[in-house]
Every structure is written in structure tokens, then in C-alpha cells.
Amino acid sequence: MATANHFSHCTHQHIHMHCGSRILDLSRPQVMGILNITPDSFFDGGKFFRDQKIDLSEVVNTAAQMVKDGVAILDVGGESTRPNAPPVGEQEEMDRVLPVVEKLARELDVIISVDTSNPHLMVASAALGAGLINDVRGLRRPGAIAAVAATQLPVCVMHMQGEPDTMQIEPHYNDVVAEVSAYFRHRVEDCIKGGIARHNIILDPGFGFGKTARHNLQLLKHLPELAKLGYPLLAGLSRKSLIGKITGREVDQRLAGSIALATLACSSGARIIRAHDVRETVDAVNLYYAVNEVCE
User: Fold this and answer.
1) Candidates 137, 211, 239, 240; catalytic one
2) How far apart are CA 261 and CA 21, in angstroms?
């Protein structure tokens, strides 16, 4: 029986991004697996810490399983960006992330993404083998655009209203879709002026970052409008409070909701799905792709 990988590409053009020494094929949706190297992540905080130190062997084992399960990208983050999360010092973030990036890049055949707003970490992680920068603050920190331009790596620019410690305090938009679209147009222009190649830009609407449940639903419903901006879209909906508000489920009971939203995001144009539950999400994305790519 044919798998999704054997279907011909009937509707999508081939989009290949050069992520350091590896190629990311976005002619089909891909899954980005989350590796939180933090003690306070909202879902799996502290998983990789033993006696306040990072257990690198546990990180590698988890990452290797994600690769086996079909993930295309591993997203390594050293700062929790959950609502009300306290900031992490620059050096502490680097101490958490760099050893992980170096080891994963050396031992696994997968694209390593670094989830950071720290310009120094962007440059240092690229030197150790990272292939993608993922910035929830949309490269708004001083020096961030220049840092990404220097690495020549692809970058995911996310929309967030406010900062993690304040973003969920009564977020307001007159028209969330129009305002996020306008933000992206301005940020893309700034990125290109700063030396980042247009073909290296990915956009993330920032579900759950400075948005109410209604804002998130509006963005998801109108995701095709954001796709018309002409850049690959990343959707991060895994385990988020939106699912809890609608279903009443606690964080550890949101897998079904996460899979449903991942599939909806794919059908609306998302090219990268960021997920905690890699195996299940890869299955869902592969099934979506198989149905979508069957030629008439």
C-alpha cells in the first residue's frame, strides 16, 4: 500500500529552503517537534533537567525518537514563552541551548531550529549546526535582524502583541487578521532591508501570543489570507489554551484537539506544524497530504 511519500505533487510547487547543510522541503506540510530545554514550560517543563542540570542523553533520546517518528525540524528553546513567563538571562539561555544544538546537530540527521530572540544565541547556534531561527518576538530586539542576516539561515518571524509576561492582559484588536497581516508586511520589509533574503522568511501568526480565543479562531479561519502574503506559514496550536477554552480539557488531555487544529491549519495553507506530540501529528499531516495530493 502506498504511503504519503509516494504520492505525486499535484497541487503544490516545490519549495525548498536551505537550512545550513540540510534542505527543508515545503512542497508538503512538515512537522516541527518541540524540545523545551526549560524548567518551566507549560506542558513538559523540567523534563530534561536532573538536579538543575540538563540531561543531554535524555534530550538526545527524545529527539531521536521524534526523528524516527517523522519530524522534519527539531525546535530547541531555552526560554519559556508561556503566558506570564519570567524572562531568562541571555547567558543562561545560551548555556541551556548551545550544548543541545551542538550535540543534536552532530548526532542526528535533522534540521535544528533555535527558538530564541537573542541575537548572540542566533549567531552562536548557527555556528554549531542550527539550520533555522524561530523568533517569537519577530526579530524586534536590537541586532536580531542583523544576526539572522549574518547567519544566512531561514527565519520564522512570529506575531506577538506585547511580551510573554504581559501578552494575555486584555489583548485587543480592531481587526486581528488585518492587523497581523499589516505587521507581517512591515516586518518582512524591515527584514529584507536588513539583509535577510526574501526566500528565507517564514511567518507565524502567533496563536496564543497576545490573543483571546476568539482572535485565535479568527486567525485560523482566515489563515488563507495570510498565506496570500506569499511566505510559508508556521502554525503552533499544540496543547494551547484555546483548546482548553473550547473543550474544557486540561493541558495533558488536549491531544485530540491539537490534531484537529493541526489538520485544519494544513488545509488552510500552513506548511509547518509545530507540535509536542510528534508521532500523532505526523500521522495526521501525512493523511491530510495523501488525500490532498491524490490526482483526479
Assistant:
1) 240
2) 31
What's the CA gap between 137 and 115, in Å, rounded? 10
d(CA 258, CA 235): 11
Q: Which residue has the cell 533574503?
A: 197
105 inside domain? yes
- Alpha carbons 215 and 173: distance in angstroms, whole number: 8
Q: Tell me the pLDDT band of 46, cut-offs 50, 70 and 90.
A: low
Please indicate whether residue 279 is annotated as part of the active site.
no
Query: Which of 28, 96, 137, 274 is labelled catalytic?
Result: 274
Residue 15: strand, helix, or coil: coil
- Are 73 and 25 in contact by the 8 Å Cβ rule? The answer is no
> Does residue 86 lie within any of the structural domains?
yes
Average pLDDT over residues 263-290: 97
User: What mean pLDDT, rounded, does the chain reach?
Assistant: 90
Could you read off the pLDDT of 7-42 as tens digits, one per residue? 334 444 558 999 999 999 999 999 999 999 987 554
Looking at residue 7, the DSSP 8-state letter turns out to be S
Question: d(Cα 101, Cα 133) in Å, to the nearest integer?
Answer: 12
CB 235 within 8 A of CB 270: yes
Number of domains, the chain: 1
Residues contacting 225, CB < 8 A, separation 6+: 177, 181
pLDDT digits (tens, 9 = 90+) for 154-210: 999 999 987 766 667 778 899 999 999 999 999 999 999 999 999 999 999 999 999
Instruction: Write the DSSP string, 116-179.
Output: ---HHHHHHHHHTT--EEEETTTT-STTHHHHHHHHT--EEEEP-SS-TTTTTSS---SSHHHH
Q: What is the pTM of this model?
A: 0.91
Residue 209 lies in a domain: yes
CATH of the domain at 80: 3.20.20.20
